Amino acid sequence: MITVAAADFRDALPQGGRLLGLDVGTKTIGTALCDAGWTIATPAALIRRTKFSKDLEAMQALAKTQCVAGLVIGLPLNLDGTDSPRTQSVRAFARNLEKPLALPILLWDERWSTQAVTRTLLDADASRARRAELVDKMAAAYILQGAIDALCMN
Q: How many helices (DSSP H) and strands (DSSP E) are in the chain?
């Protein structure tokens, strides 16, 4: 099941459980995990993209070892909320994950995630190299935190 509706996603996870957040880029996939009670999201691994089969193996291993119940994938919409070519690519990526992972998937608006995280890293005086290393997985945590906050409010 792939949805953009937080309520539908929550209903597909009646027992709660850990969630895996993904910030899907062209070169890397930032990942983040939250606790089973959906209180806090923390950055996890950075997956360097190669072939889809290798990317899938990395996500399957992470989902299995962390007992993941569902995925939250950042959806890169245009500022006006419309789809872009990148949005379509992420939707296709989610469809490709749906059957092999057999987990509910929530597509979550990520329009401001990278900018917010970059601003935070700049405020922390992180070097350019350090920002490049952290931004994708921190963006995944930002996306996942926004989703779990919405899931807990409704």
A: 5, 6
Q: Is 6 exposed, middle or buried (0-12, 13-18, 19+ CB in 10 A)?
A: buried
Domains defined along the chain, listed by start:
2-153 (3.30.420.140)
- The string of pLDDT tens digits covering residues 20-52 is 999 998 888 999 999 988 889 999 888 999 999
**Which secondary structure element, helix H or strand E, spans residue 21, and what is its range?**
strand 18-24
Q: What is the DSSP letter of 49?
A: P
Q: Using CA atoms, how far apart are residues 28 and 131, in angstroms rounded to an integer?
A: 14
Helices 113-123 and 128-153: crossing angle in degrees, nearest 10, is: 130
**CA distances in angstroms from 2 to 35, 110, 116, listed in the order given:** 21, 16, 26
Give pTM, 2 decimals: 0.83
The span from the CA of 113 to the CA of 76, in Å, is 9
Facing residues of 75 across strands?
109
